[in-house]
Automatic annotation (TrEMBL):
Signal peptide: none annotated. PROSITE patterns: YRDC. Residues 83-286 form the YrdC-like domain. One of its GO terms (molecular function) is double-stranded RNA binding. Transmembrane segments: none annotated. It holds the Pfam family Sua5_yciO_yrdC. PANTHER family: DHBP SYNTHASE RIBB-LIKE ALPHA/BETA DOMAIN-CONTAINING PROTEIN, THREONYLCARBAMOYL-AMP SYNTHASE. This is Threonylcarbamoyl-AMP synthase.
Length: 312
């Protein structure tokens, strides 16, 4: 009996064939072929999903990550089940990279707040004026306490300890406006002009997203990330598809994009904590709670003066 075995690829289908001949028979021998499909693994499901994507998306598709024209594109499970894929992203951020990461609302362009050159590049990529402050993404209340003066406490005059209420909101889809501490680099709040150098400390928007991918990145960093929202360069509309974001901002100098799936265009609720009571100046994904006041015009002075150009 003669036999032949063939294997194709690591996860590909394989087959083997053999020729059967009967002993002491005058009948001619004949071949028999048996084929097996690939095992039903998670990799196969990812491939099936990729096939359904458009050809434009396939350019960026890969089981782990790809790098085209200097752009690292990482596909990560929204549940955070494969955070090991984020190691290259964290390394790039620590080296001064600028890239796109998901949050619990939308996607954000982010960089290490301690990197002067990265902040300059972020502003240039997003075309943000140098005098305008940015928001920060924090992993924990410890980060908030370090880079801001914290949340207001009860004053004994009927105003409750707001911190206790905020603890039930974070992590969550809120941007809280707080007074920056001296630990926050000046370029994060006022930067680029001689007059700003001597200006008083300003406020900063603080986020603690309830997103597994974002929190995994922040946990591996030893400082918050400076961030701004992702909008279409030509139209003032939110961009929620990471493939489209890579196409639009990759040529502008992005170093990486983390794909956590298509999001919904629902930004965070912005609450000014420097006022008593804390005041909602933009209603978004986070519900307005009983201890929050509301601006008559939810566009508010805060957004008109661009204290935060685009809170995510």
């Amino acid at each position: 009996m003669a036999s032949e075995v063939k294997l194709y690829g690591r996860d590909a289908a394989f087959s083997f064939s053999f020729r059967l001949s009967l002993a002491n028979s005058t009948l001619p021998s004949f071949p028999i072929r048996v084929s097996f499909g690939p095992p039903k693994t998670r990799n196969c499901r990812i491939l099936a999903m990729a096939i359904k994507r458009s050809p434009k998306r396939l350019k960026y598709s890969a089981p782990r990550f790809t790098k085209e024209d200097g752009l690292l594109y990482v596909e990560a499970d929204p549940s955070g089940a494969d955070t090991w894929k984020l190691e290259p992203v964290v390394n790039l951020l620590k080296e001064g990279a600028v890239g796109v990461i998901p949050t619990d609302t939308m996607y954000a362009i982010a960089c290490d707040l301690r990197s002067h050159s990265a902040i300059e590049r972020l502003r240039r990529i997003k075309n943000i004026e140098a005098s305008k402050p940015l928001s920060i993404l924090c992993h924990s209340f410890r980060d908030i306490d370090k880079y801001t003066t914290g949340f207001p406490c009860g004053d004994g005059q009927g105003h409750a300890n707001i911190f206790k209420a905020v603890k039930h909101c974070l992590p969550g889809p809120y941007t809280f406006i707080l007074t920056a501490s001296k630990e926050l680099p000046k370029q994060c709040i006022r930067y680029g002009t001689a007059s700003a150098k001597y200006a008083a400390r300003k406020n900063v928007g603080v986020r603690m997203p309830d997103d597994a991918i974002c929190q995994a990145i922040l946990e591996k960093m030893d400082a918050p990330l400076l961030c701004t929202s992702v909008k279409c360069p030509k139209e003032n509309e939110w961009m929620i598809d990471p493939v489209m974001i890579a196409d639009a901002y990759g040529p502008e100098g992005l170093d990486f994009v983390v794909d956590g799936g298509v999001r919904v265009a629902d930004p965070s609720t912005v609450v000014d904590m420097t006022k008593i009571p804390p005041t909602v100046i933009r209603e978004g994904k986070g519900p307005i709670l009983h201890w929050m006041g509301v601006e008559d015009d939810l566009k508010g002075v805060f957004l008109e003066e661009n204290f935060i150009p685009s809170a995510i």
